[in-house]
Specification:
Layout (H helix, E strand, L loop, with lengths): L1 E2 L2 H9 L7 E9 L10 H10 L9 E4 L9 E4 L5 H4 E5 L6 H13 L9 E7 L12 E8 L5 H11 L23 H39 L23 E9 H8 L7 H19 L9 E7 L13 E7 L7 H22 L1 H6 L6 H13 L12 E6 L7 E2 L2 E9 L8 E8 L2 E9 L6 H17 L5 H10 L10 H7 L1 H25 L1
Helix pairs in contact: 1-11, 6-9, 7-8, 8-9, 8-12, 13-15, 14-15
Length: 527
């Protein structure tokens, strides 16, 4: 029996009929690579059953403390039933992309039974009319509650059921598995009392770890390494109200080579910077179509894994977060990329100064009963409509393998993601890379985004704009930089030289003008 951390437990408290707190993936597989050229549902059941011991989350369920006096515990479910968790459905004819998107949204909108292990695999057949996919493909729509895993531990869960060869690895016979008995109420109450005794000591320890980080942040702000300029609440948008129980889902798949060629145009830029810029461009285009684009930049919350090398198989969430403005107020795509790069660097510096892991440890001290009550009241009273959001959307990046993966012998041809939304934050963009592609998939509220295909198209357009754009400011900036170091005293000689050689004056004037924007750019950087 193991107790959930405060961060893991928060996802249990936030789980309501309108806001189910599970994450997931949508993998598409070509069964022609499997032995015999096909995969039956009973083959999938046997395959998953042979891998159950490779990830603890498969057979663990929650046990809640009476009255939520303390955070829940996880135990091995003595009544585990594999066929409850692995299900089989098919799309109706014609089986196209739009039908798959609707089916994924419906599956994701349905909450999970928190009295059972917190995962589901839905096998979806009938994808024969989806462009770009081989005939006979099937999808695996996976759902795992956020209380059980984060993005990085989800990769480990995925690794448990995948192979790197078409022929599945032969698993030797395992000893018969046995679950745990549920703890008695008295035992859980005794554990709660012991936690309450030791909690002040743990809180003091966390505070002691915070003080050096806070001092470091103050020092870096004073030294100009971290800027607090522009730190403010995000603007209110159509994505930031009370959410309904209905969902939409879609995905845009982009070539990773194109993303890398874009990031190489700005020194120090990363693939993440380019992806955030594409999301900012997509949101700008979509909100302009809806006549709902605010003047200020939208802000994304980007989770950061603080999982150490030895904690890859640990259950639960080990994540912090940083806030990055997406530059939705900037029309030029390359200017937006430069803006996002600068914002991301500043946000990372701020998070590193305080200590990302230290920030996550404060979640352990959330009062469990009050947290659940507060989450329910926040949703029921529609409080999200009464204040500006801290951030508008979530953008979470889950790195995937560069080598092909196989599930029960079927080759994965595409990997996409899903995620939870909640009151005040009605869109999550899940970025999954696999092989030569990177997919930006989004989950949103059907009342907020009634036309998800339009936002998916806007993301594709934002990528193409970046791919075809060229940094216009770079060419004139270089001669301006050469002219700038000249001593200011020489400026007094310019009128004299201008009379003797008018042609030089004509050359000097545009050079002086070109130096002005360069000087302005420098002053902005200092601020």
């Amino acid at each position: 029996m193991e107790q959930l951390s405060g961060q893991d437990a928060s996802f249990v408290y936030l789980d309501t009929p309108n806001t189910p707190m599970h994450i997931g993936s949508v993998g598409i597989y070509d069964p022609s690579t499997a032995p015999g050229g096909f995969v039956r549902f009973k083959d999938i059941l046997a395959h998953v059953e042979s891998r159950l011991d490779k990830a603890r989350s498969f057979r663990q369920k929650l046990v809640r403390v009476p009255f939520d006096l303390d955070h829940p515990y996880s135990i091995d479910d003595p009544n585990f039933d594999l066929e409850y968790h692995v299900r089989h459905i098919a799309l109706p004819h014609p089986g196209d992309w739009r039908q798959l998107c609707i089916q994924v949204a419906r599956l994701h909108a349905r909450g999970m039974d928190l009295s059972k292990p917190l995962w589901e695999f839905n096998i979806v057949e009938g994808l024969d009319n989806i462009e770009g996919l081989p005939k006979g493909c099937f999808a695996l729509v996976a759902k795992v509650h956020h209380a059980a895993i984060d993005g990085m531990s989800g990769v480990e869960l995925s690794a448990a059921v995948h192979d790197i060869e078409p022929v599945p690895v032969d698993r030797s016979a395992k000893p018969k598995w046995k679950g745990e008995n549920e703890p008695a109420v008295t035992e859980m109450l005794m554990r709660t009392w012991m936690n309450s005794v030791t909690q002040p000591v743990r809180f003091a320890k966390t505070m002691a770890q915070t003080v050096p980080g806070a001092a470091r942040l103050i020092r870096e702000v004073a030294g100009g390494d971290v800027s607090l300029k522009g730190a403010k609440m995000a603007p209110q948008t159509i994505l930031n109200g009370k959410v309904s129980p209905h969902r939409v889902w879609d995905s845009t798949v982009l070539p990773l080579a194109g993303i890398r060629s874009i990031k190489d145009r700005i020194e120090g830029a990363t693939v993440n910077d380019v992806i955030l810029t594409i999301i900012g461009g997509g949101l700008r285009k979509y909100l302009q179509q809806r006549k709902a684009l605010p003047k200020d930049s939208l802000t994304a919350m980007a989770p950061i894994s603080v999982r150490a090398e030895g904690e890859k198989e640990a259950l639960g969430n080990l994540v912090s977060a940083m806030l990055v403005q997406l530059g939705t107020h900037i029309e030029d795509p390359m200017e937006r990329l430069a803006f996002v790069r600068k914002e991301a660097l500043n946000s990372k510096a701020m998070t590193n100064a305080v200590g990302a892991r230290t920030l996550t440890e404060y979640s352990q001290f959330i009062p469990s009963g009050l947290a659940g009550l507060g989450a329910r009241l926040y949703s029921r009273l529609g409080v999200s409509n009464l204040h500006s959001p801290v951030f508008n959307v979530v953008a979470t990046n889950v790195p995937g393998p560069r080598v092909p993966l196989y599930f029960a012998g079927a080759k994965m041809v595409r990997m996409m993601g899903t995620g939870p939304i909640f009151d005040g934050m009605g869109m999550i963009n899940a970025i999954y890379s696999y092989g030569p592609d990177i997919a930006i998939s989004f989950t949103s509220d059907r009342e907020m985004i009634p036309d998800p295909a339009n936002y998916a198209a806007a993301l594709k357009e934002a990528y193409e704009e970046l791919l075809n754009a060229r940094p216009k400011a770079e060419a004139p900036a270089k001669p301006a930089a050469k002219a700038e170091p000249e001593p200011s005293q020489k400026a007094t000689t310019k009128p004299v030289k201008a009379k003797a050689a008018p042609k030089r004056t004509a050359v000097k004037k545009p050079a002086a003008k070109a130096a002005k924007p360069a000087a302005k750019a420098k002053s902005k950087t200092k601020k």
